């Protein structure tokens, strides 16, 4: 593919965008000795939506990045699960990641200004050349591959930088994604629009649900209600796209009307006031939620995070898919730079896994949007999609925690598995340790009003191992598949499958 060598380029990788996707891929490449330039058009901290995170990001990926302790100590609101006023049930129902507040058993509701800066500052510490107030104008390419970018710095001067790879992590409004080819396809099923703002003084649910995200359906759509601090709450209404004209005429009036149509949200905001100053002072709008590019990469360039695809905000998968796709891209880049895997094969593996996650959550959300069903139906859908033998509630828990990829758990013996056994399945001791605490916390009761019996809903290691094997069997079916290195930073060839044992029959009576 006429790939440039290291000496002929200014850097190994240019990352466009400093959000979670960009800082993740930049950090993981820099950790392996790559020369990385990250260009961010704004100055951090800056506002961003997407505040409700999943354990797969805050524990496993942040653990690999080396910022899990910093995130834990940042004072973010602990999120132990979610509460839904949804479906046929007239009462709210809840799920939990675990019942005890212990590292690994929860996620966080974060102010993205603070969370994103933690990740970007960590990239700097790892050796990434981070340049803020630098806007990428175009990519440098020829018919064979992308070879760099042009950008304008804070003073208005224009620069060209050459690179072996360009990673577009510039979000849903990316101006350079078209250079990978293909088109952006909007998912008709999720053609929604969101109008949202921030309130002080809103009510909180009683412990242990106090930090939960609340998703409340109403006649015209559904609300998110995210407690960011003791006082600050993110509140947004997701409604059909045909409401766009009404919302654009007067965003605040539209949000106020939707709040009035939801008795639960109205009650929670009875004594609250909307924030009208500072970064949270606007009523904002986002539309065309669900989309996917038909291509995620071309030689020399890859899309990650929202530049590639986005599903829907209901189960808070945005930052998870951003950081996971950043890890996938970093594995591909690291493997190619090290001369271990050919470029096409490395990025095909990353795209396969990225699309699998997108499609998994797309189908899951499509089923959950059928509000004529109850939570039992949603649990069974999760079980069907994961394809495992775990209980329906366990399967729901895997997906809502961001564990659908099946990459995050200790294997061959459950939590604390021997390092050698973990490595034999493409896992390493660092990766195992990063998620060990998470799984030690998941044998607690998965609470919903519908299933109060903790024995019915216990997440035992055997169930999880069966689910993981089912997921891995799908990957094994691909003849050119790759597996993950022990430190999670590279692709590698899969271990040879053991030959089936051949039974030796006893000679027939009277035989020679």
Automatic annotation (TrEMBL):
Matching InterPro entries: FAD/NAD-bd_sf, Flavin-dep_Halogenase_NPB, Flavin_halogenase
Chain positions covered by the region annotation Disordered: 409-431, 479-512
Record Pfam families: Trp_halogenase
Gene Ontology terms for molecular function: monooxygenase activity
Gene3D superfamilies linked to this entry: 3.30.9.100, FAD/NAD(P)-binding domain (3.50.50.60)
Entry's family note: Belongs to the flavin-dependent halogenase family. Bacterial tryptophan halogenase subfamily.
Name under which the protein is recorded: Halogenation protein CepH
Natural source organism: Actinacidiphila yanglinensis
């Amino acid at each position: 593919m006429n790939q440039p060598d290291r000496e002929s380029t200014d850097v190994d990788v240019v990352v466009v965008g400093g959000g979670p996707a960009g800082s993740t891929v930049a950090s993981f490449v820099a950790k392996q000795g790559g020369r990385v330039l990250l260009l961010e058009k704004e100055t951090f901290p800056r506002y961003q939506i997407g505040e409700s995170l999943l354990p797969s990001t805050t524990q496993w990926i942040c653990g690999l990045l080396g910022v899990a302790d910093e995130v834990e100590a940042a004072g973010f609101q602990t999120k132990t699960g979610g509460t839904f006023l949804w479906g046929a049930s007239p009462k709210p129902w809840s799920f939990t990641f675990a019942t005890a507040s212990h590292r690994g058993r929860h996620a966080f509701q974060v102010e993205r200004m603070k969370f994103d800066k933690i990740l970007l500052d960590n990239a700097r510490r790892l050796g990434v050349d981070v340049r803020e107030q630098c806007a990428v104008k175009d990519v440098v390419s020829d018919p064979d591959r992308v070879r760099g970018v042009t950008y304008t710095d804070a003073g208005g001067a224009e620069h060209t930088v050459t690179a072996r790879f360009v990673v577009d992590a510039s979000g849903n409004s990316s101006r350079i994604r078209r250079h990978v080819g293909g088109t952006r396809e909007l998912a008709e099923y999720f053609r929604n629009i969101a109008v949202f703002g921030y309130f002080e003084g809103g009510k909180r649910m009683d412990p242990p649900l106090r930090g939960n995200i609340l998703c409340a359906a109403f006649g015209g759509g559904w609300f998110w209600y995210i407690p960011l601090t003791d006082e600050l709450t993110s509140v947004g209404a997701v409604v059909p796209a045909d409401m766009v004209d009404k919302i654009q005429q007067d965003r605040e009036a539209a949000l106020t009307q939707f709040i009035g149509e939801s008795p639960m949200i109205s009650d929670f905001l009875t004594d609250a006031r909307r924030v009208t100053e500072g970064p949270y002072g606007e009523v904002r709008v986002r539309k065309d939620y669900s989309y996917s590019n038909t291509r995620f990469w071309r030689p020399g360039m890859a899309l990650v995070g929202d530049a590639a695809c986005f599903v829907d905000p209901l189960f808070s998968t945005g930052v998870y898919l951003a950081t996971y796709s950043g890890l996938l891209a970093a594995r591909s880049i690291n493997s190619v730079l090290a001369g271990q895997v050919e470029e096409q094969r490395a990025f095909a593996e990353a795209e396969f896994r990225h699309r699998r996650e997108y499609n998994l959550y797309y189908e899951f959300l499509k089923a959950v949007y059928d509000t004529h069903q109850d939570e039992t139906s949603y649990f069974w859908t999760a079980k069907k999609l994961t394809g495992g033998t775990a209980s329906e509630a366990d399967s729901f828990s895997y997906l809502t925690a961001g564990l659908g990829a099946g990459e995050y758990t200790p294997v061959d013996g459950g939590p604390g598995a021997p390092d050698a056994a973990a490595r034999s399945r493409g896992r390493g001791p660092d990766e195992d340790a990063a998620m060990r605490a998470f799984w030690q916390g998941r044998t607690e009761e998965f609470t919903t009003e519908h299933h109060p019996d903790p024995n019915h809903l216990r997440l035992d290691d055997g169930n999880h191992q069966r689910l993981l094997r089912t997921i891995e069997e799908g990957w094994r079916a691909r003849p050119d598949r790759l597996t993950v290195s022990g430190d999670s930073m590279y692709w590698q060839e899969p271990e040879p499958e053991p030959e089936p044992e051949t039974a030796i029959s006893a000679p027939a009576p009277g035989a020679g």
